[in-house]
Amino acid sequence: MPTYFRVPFNDKNHAKALGARWCLDHELWYAPDGFPNVDAALAEHWPRITPLPPVEHFPVEDRAFGSSPRIAVDLIPTTCWYNSVRSCVEHDDWKRISLGVKLRAGRKCELCGTPANREQDIHLEAYERFDYLDGTQVLKRLVCACSRCHHAIHYDRAEALNEEQAAREHLRLTNGWDDAALDQHLRKANALWKKRSAQQWELDLSIIENAGISVQLPEANKRAERAVHFHRVRPPGSTLDEFLAVLGFPE
């Protein structure tokens, strides 16, 4: 039986150099059966783990939520930044969630139909779709999205990285929009973002808890401390570096 290891993404090249192989089914690096030297070498750097089953079903999840247009720009309110499913569950549980979302989608993007492609730097990830109801940010659905769609969804991040043209093109092609339709969508998304960013929101991850996964919600005061009011986001005259610092990107 192969032995699996918890190898951080940034260590993957090191693990590969030591003889580790990648298991797509579990999305983990492992030492092949019959190679005790590889097992020992990997164990010097990373812990051995037992793969856990992926989570593909989330009770009361609304799989149709946000299905039109195919890709919609989803600007997370600044008062909800730094709070997500990934930050509220254990590392191994997030891996189970992410893997399950990919498997049930047939390892293809549910938005544009693209599979992962390492040569084109396209990978798949679990994207969280929220609704905002009566002061509560409610997780409604988890979507398998490719990196191009995810980049377009969070258009503000693409803009911050000066990659908005690629995001625009992907939105136009996937949704069948012309420039006028795209610009109208962006104006509406930006107006909604500003409105939502003007208040605090509770966080509801009940669809995750209903799947039997423990959730540790951030305390209200901690959420308020980490929140960034939208007036602080890219004020007039700010440089890109200053904007990225507000967004929390490393230097």
From TrEMBL:
Matching InterPro entries: DUF5710 (IPR043764)
Domain DUF5710: 3-46
Identification of the protein by name: DUF5710 domain-containing protein
Organism: Pseudoxanthomonas kaohsiungensis
